[in-house]
């Protein structure tokens, strides 16, 4: 979603669609900057996404287990650890997207889903926002992955996930931020907080 500039205020003056794709669109926007000058910016438009920090088993134990996926990502040249996540469908709420993506990618269904925070992924060139949720009281079911999704479900103790963030093995930004947020702000026992 773009905001048109109020005369004299920063914001979009005009926009031209350059590319329409399956996942993203590319626009060239004429923008008024805070000093009143104008310029052109290339902006990737994205419908937004939801991502899920899923806690398997008892969330109150000293080192709760996280449900992660290890997914092949062409842009990353291999397999990486991620939390389950995916794009919002047209008209879909972030919460419904989170529940759907958790089930499709991991087979798990959550009795409780709570919104944690919303983040911009890379605001220098995209309007993509990811809505991060905490999923608890999980029940196993069947996955429904897309044809281009190659992944395995991995259950890791929170302490191991934090160690993988520290070592750089978890290099996906949404995953690292979501796990660190969950760890730091009371969703895990004191012993696991940073």
Q: In summary, what is this structure?
A:
The chain is an alpha+beta fold and 194 residues long. 18% of the residues lie in helices and 43% in strands.
Describe this structure in words.
With 194 residues, this protein is an alpha+beta fold. It is 18% helix and 43% strand. The chain is built from 3 helices and 10 strands. The chain has helices at residues 94-106, 158-167, 173-184, and strands at 11-20, 25-32, 38-45, 49-56, 65-73, 78-82, 85-87, 108-120, 129-140, 151-157. Strands 4, 5, 6, 7, 8, 9 and 10 form a 7-stranded mixed β-sheet that branches. A 3-stranded antiparallel β-sheet has the order 1-2-3, with no helix packed on it. Strand 8 (108-120) and strand 9 form a beta hairpin. Helix 2 (158-167) crosses helix 3 (173-184). It is elongated and about 55 Å long. The two termini are 35 Å apart. The model is unreliable at 188-194 (pLDDT under 50).
How many helices in DSSP terms?
Answer: 3
Using the alpha-carbon principal axes, give the shape: elongated
* Uncertain spans: 188-194
Give a quick account of the main beta sheet: strands, pairing sense, barrel closure: 7 strands, mixed
Q: Strand tally, please?
A: 10
Into which percent range does the helicity of residues fall?
10-25%
Name the average pLDDT.
Answer: 90
Rg over CA atoms, rounded to whole Å, is 19 Å
Distance between the termini: 35 Å
**Class from helix and strand fractions:** alpha+beta
Order of helices and strands: EEEEEEEHEEEHH
Strand content: 35-45%
């Amino acid at each position: 979603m773009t905001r048109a500039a109020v005369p004299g205020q920063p914001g979009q003056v005009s926009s031209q669609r350059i590319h329409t794709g399956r996942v993203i669109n590319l626009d060239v926007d004429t923008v008024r900057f805070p000093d009143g000058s104008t310029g052109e910016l290339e902006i990737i438009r994205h419908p937004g996404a939801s991502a899920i920090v899923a806690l398997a088993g008892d969330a109150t134990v000293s080192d709760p287990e996280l449900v992660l996926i290890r997914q092949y990502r062409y842009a990353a040249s291999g397999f990486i650890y991620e939390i389950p996540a995916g794009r919002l469908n047209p008209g879909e709420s972030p919460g419904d997207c989170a529940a759907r993506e958790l089930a499709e990618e991991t087979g798990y269904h959550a009795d409780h889903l709570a919104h944690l925070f919303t983040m911009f992924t890379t605001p220098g060139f995209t309007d993509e926002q990811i809505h991060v949720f905490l999923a608890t009281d999980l029940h196993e079911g069947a996955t429904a992955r897309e044809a281009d999704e190659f992944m395995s479900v991995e259950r890791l103790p929170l302490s191991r996930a934090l160690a993988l963030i520290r070592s750089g093995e978890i290099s996906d930004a949404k995953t690292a931020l979501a796990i660190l947020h969950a760890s730091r702000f009371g969703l895990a026992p004191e012993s696991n907080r940073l």
